Structures are given as structure tokens and as C-alpha cells.
Amino acid sequence: MLFPKKVKFRKWHTMRRNPKKGKTAKRGLTVSFGSHGLKAMTHARVRSNQIESARKVVVRRLGKTGKMWVRIFPDKPFTQKPPEVKLGKGKGDPVGYEVEVWPGRILFEVDGVGDEVAIEALIKAGKKLPLRAKVVPRSVH
User: Fold this and answer.
1) How far apart are CA 52 and CA 56, in angstroms?
2) What is the pLDDT of residues 9-63, one digit of tens each?
């Protein structure tokens, strides 16, 4: 699973979970490396194990000829309290890492395989993630 080698702060602020109307990603909007990409259509917090699960699905489908790029990295720690703990007594311990994904962000890219295989692999990967996503081809400039 993906996680940073070193972090400056063990615990981050939770931040707002309510995405403002019309808020979209500012970077990572175009398919830069591959022929097809998986684009987020809704806001979500994607955990490192979900990214790894989606990555495994794509790699298995692409085989040896296909190449894949993961365009997101989970660098934000999230905490959790143990079960059956009463309120108060501080914030929970860090249990993993996540990334905040906004609509418009490219999550994965693939290349080196046919269009049908690439689209099928990315659709399967999108089902592993906690957001709605669509497959987009590389735009010709």
C-alpha cells in the first residue's frame, strides 16, 4: 500500500467533508502519460488500500504489455478511535493514509493495450473506489 516515508505532523485537521457547489480539482485534469484515464466525477476521500485494490485490478487486466500510472498519492493521515470508546479523551490514533479527490481529477492512466481492454480495466478499477468515475481518452492537441 502507498504511504509517505516521513510526515511532519502525525495527525491532520479533519477539514470540511462538504464539497462546495462547483468546487473542482485545480491540477491533474488531463491525461498526460497514457492513452486512457479514469476521471473522478464526485468528491471523495480515497484510502491507500482502495487505491491498491484498484491498481491490482488494472494490472491484472493489462497483462505484460500494458503500462499503468497512478496519478494520486495518499499523504493525509486519518485517525480512528478503538471500538466502544466513550466520547472525549482526545483524538484517535493514526490508522492509515488517504487523499482528498475532487471532481475532474485523473486517478489512473493506462497505455500499451487496445481501447477495449483499457476501458474495461479502468471501469473495473472505478468500481473499487468510493466515488463515481468515468473513462476518458487522451485529448489530441
Assistant:
1) 6
2) 999 998 777 767 778 999 999 999 999 999 999 999 999 999 999 999 999 999 9
Q: Cα–Cα distance between 33 and 61 in angstroms, integer?
A: 19
**CA–CA–CA angle 19, 12, 27 (5° rounding):** 50
Closest CA to 105 of 45, 20, 17, 16: 45
Amino acid at position 112, single letter: G
Using CA atoms, how far residue 47 sits from 64, 73, 75, 101, in Å, is: 27, 9, 10, 10
Grouping H, G, I as helix, E, B as strand and the rest as coil, residue 56 is helix
The pTM (predicted TM-score) of the whole model is 0.91
Total residue count of the chain as it appears in this document: 141
Q: Strand, helix or coil at 51?
A: helix
Measured CA to CA in angstroms, residue 44 lies from 36, 40, 100, 102, 136 at distances of 21, 9, 6, 7, 19
For residues 131 and 119, is the Cβ–Cβ distance under 8 A? no
CATH number of the domain at 43-83+91-137, please?
3.90.1170.10
